[in-house]
Amino acid sequence: MQRHMASTLGLYNAENEHDACGVGFVAHIKGAKTHAIVAQALKILENLDHRGAVGADALMGDGAGILLQLPDALYREEMASRRACQRSLERAAREQGQTVLGWRDVPVNAEMPMSPAVRDKEPCIRQIFIGRGDNVLVQDGLERKLYLIRKLASEAITSLQLT
Predict the structure, then answer these.
(1) C-alpha distances in angstroms, 94 versus 4, 85, 105, 128, 158?
(2) Which of 11, 21, 67, 112 is catalytic?
(3) Residue 1 gets which letter from DSSP?
(4) What's the pTM value of the predicted model, to 2 decimals?
(5) Which of 71, 76, 111, 130 has the smallest CB count inside 10 Å?
């Protein structure tokens, strides 16, 4: 029967099939979460290169990666803080009759040499775009509104006592 399948499928021969997948597993026996575990998992991933863990383009991987548990509480706290700050700015802009046009992530030079201790504390820098509202007729008036928006938002954010 296998010969019959091979003959109907041309040059295909099931006997040439084999699996080249590699799997590694790193965990702490008591469930501790450490950076060392992630570093070891990345080393395993790096070592998978011996089995050809690359795609047709040698500079592009084959999709291999590591699976890990995300620090949900930390991310929720950080995202809540960020959203609270953004909402404070947007609220202040609206209260002053101006229009929030959107937000932009400010580009940073990720290649710049930096201490890991500093990189771990690198802030998220976003830029708000505020459009002139109907209650502003001249440029100086807009500048005054923007100054007031910054002051009001700064006070609101300070009162949140975020860490």
Answers:
(1) 74, 14, 21, 13, 19
(2) 21
(3) -
(4) 0.52
(5) 111
Alpha-carbon gap, residue 19 to 93, rounded angstroms: 59
Q: Which of 104, 140, 139 is nearest to 124 (CA)?
A: 104
* 21 among known catalytic residues: yes
DSSP secondary structure, 70-135, as one string: --HHHHHHHHHHHHHHHHHHHHHHHHTT-EEEEEEEPP--TTS---HHHHHTPPP-EEEEEEPPTT
Token pair 């500093």 is found at 118
Tell me which amino acid residue 148 is: L
